């Protein structure tokens, strides 16, 4: 579905795809050693996270308190080992710290919190990241700041009613500095979103709340780069990108297998996953 015409996006995409393979491997290692984590959700979001952090967001570990930095909110906070892997590759936390994930007194908990450098909002109770991001976008406007607010939500997460209050408010105020990315893997915990509490027609619903909406492929890095670099989708409206993704993407035996929401890796599975990613040097 690539339809990008920006040559620099294509060049950057090759590097981002390499980083995403590495980040997937780090996430697998972190979850395997802790016998914890939500690998299906991690792999689903990884290409989006890497595209944002290595190609779009103005954030810098060396200048982490810059008031005009962009703000990213991981509302599907259970994708924490993905986020920690990306933050380590981005220089916010040392890579060795990933080994502490899930241990007593570690700041790397199962859902992300602001104890971790680079995490802007503590999340984990689904349905709160978008309301927080909407407030941050209003604050950015009041500050006349050029900072952009990007929030990543799970699709099952959109069943939480609090999201719809925020969607309504952002539409009312035309918050064009706000972008919602929906990780539309069609799965929630152990079931299809459409079987449990259907979201479709999601795009029409969002448009009726005043949002500009576009469908993207959440694993197509060049295309995501060009779309994300040309936001907002429409002047005077918040933007929503509905990203078609595959839960477990990149590890063949996890892809679209609902049991991988929070299943544990055996050593044999772990070795096989690393081999598939061609990242056997991670261990
Ligand atoms: C308010 C709330 N209810 C339940 C949970 C437990 N929980 C964690 S992840 C998850 C499923 C999320 O599905 P989705 O948003 O589609 O994300 P995905 O893992 O598919 O990317 C649930 C129910 C939670 N964290 N918060």
Automatic annotation (TrEMBL):
Q: Which GO terms describe its molecular function?
A: magnesium ion binding
Q: Which Pfam families match?
A: Transketolase_N
Q: Which InterPro entries match?
A: THDP-binding, Transketolase_N
Similarity field? Belongs to the transketolase family.
Protein name, as recorded: Transketolase subunit A
Give the source's domain of life in one word.
Answer: Bacteria
Q: Which PANTHER family match?
A: TRANSKETOLASE N-TERMINAL SECTION-RELATED
Keywords, A to Z?
Answer: Thiamine pyrophosphate
Transketolase N-terminal domain residues: 18-264
Q: Please list the cofactors this protein needs.
A: thiamine diphosphate
Recorded hits in Gene3D superfamilies, A to Z, give: 3.40.50.970
Q: Where is the signal peptide?
A: none
Q: Which organism is it from?
A: Saccharopolyspora spinosa
